[in-house]
Amino acid sequence: MDVLQHLDFYILRALWILGIPVGAYAFIHALRQRADAFTAVGKLTKNAWLGITGAGLLVLVLFKGPLSNGTLFWLAGLVAVLVYIVDVKPAVVGVQRGDQRW
């Protein structure tokens, strides 16, 4: 019964722990892509996404997740990283493979 009373703590802690590798993956992926692929799909430049994912990763590391005083900043960092993974990454990878038609 004690676990159920603290379930929200464990879920939020797991989100914090999983957020850091996701942010690192997004930053490294953006770093390894060609710069012209970002503009070819109509997204921000490579440097802009490196800044966004890098800042998101930094916020995810510095703030101790949703259990700290910086919850709003932590959430913004997580959203920034997830936007890259869900929206930008598939478009950039697709244009480099030649999957997308212009």
- Secondary-structure-derived class: mainly alpha
Strand content: under 5%
Our count of helices gives 5
Roughly how many Å is the radius of gyration?
A: 16 Å
Q: Tell me, rounded to a whole number, the average pLDDT.
A: 89
Low-confidence stretches: none
Terminal Cα span: 57 Å
Roughly how much helix do the residues carry, as a percent range?
A: over 70%
**Number of beta strands:** 0
* Helix and strand sequence: HHHHH
Categorize the overall geometry.
Answer: elongated
Q: How would a textbook summarize the main sheet?
A: none
Describe the structure.
- The structure is a single chain.
- The radius of gyration is 16 Å and the shape is elongated.
- The mean pLDDT is 89.
- Helix 2 runs antiparallel to helix 4 (46-62), helix 2 crosses helix 5 and helix 4 runs antiparallel to helix 5.
- It has helices at residues 2-5, 7-32, 35-40, 46-62, 71-97.
- By secondary structure, it is mostly helical.
Compact summary:
With 102 residues, this protein is an all-alpha fold.
Please specify the SSE layout and strand pairing.
Layout: H1 2-5, H2 7-32, H3 35-40, H4 46-62, H5 71-97
Question: Which features does this protein show?
Answer:
102 residues, mainly alpha, 5 helices, 78% helix, 0% strand, elongated
